[in-house]
Hints:
Layout: E1 2-10, H1 13-23, E2 28-32, E3 37-40, E4 46-51, H2 52-59, E5 74-79, H3 83-92, E6 102-104, E7 109-115, E8 121-126
Parallel strand pairs: 1-4, 5-8
Antiparallel strand pairs: 1-5, 2-3, 3-4, 6-7, 7-8
Keywords: Metal-binding
GO molecular function: metal ion binding; methylmalonyl-CoA epimerase activity
Domain VOC: 2-127
Amino acid sequence: xxxxxxxxxxxxxxxxxxxxxxxxxxxxxxxxxxxxxxxxxxxxxxxxxxxxxxxxxxxxxxxxxxxxxxxxxxxxxxxxxxxxxxxxxxxxxxxxxxxxxxxxxxxxxxxxxxxxxxxxxxxxxxxxx
Length: 129
């Protein structure tokens, strides 16, 4: 497993893109207005900005109220050789998943999501689909 992205889930996608691009001066890699997604090249590990509303739909986090304390603020994204095998192995170790392995055609990836014991969201993925 290799950490490849830290995905920040934000309430103000555009403001965060401007901050990381113009203030922090990270080179913008990918920008997808429709998905409210942007990635920045920061070396081996990317920083990605994703609309909280968009990612909440993907990971099944239903609480979109003003109670931001209960919502995830970031997501650690790990590349794996096989999503389904990683899922089965971790499930045997007692890991509770937010969803089952599934294809995200718009991302060209197979993904699954879980939380660590402190509630931080982790994504396991494999490119290409």
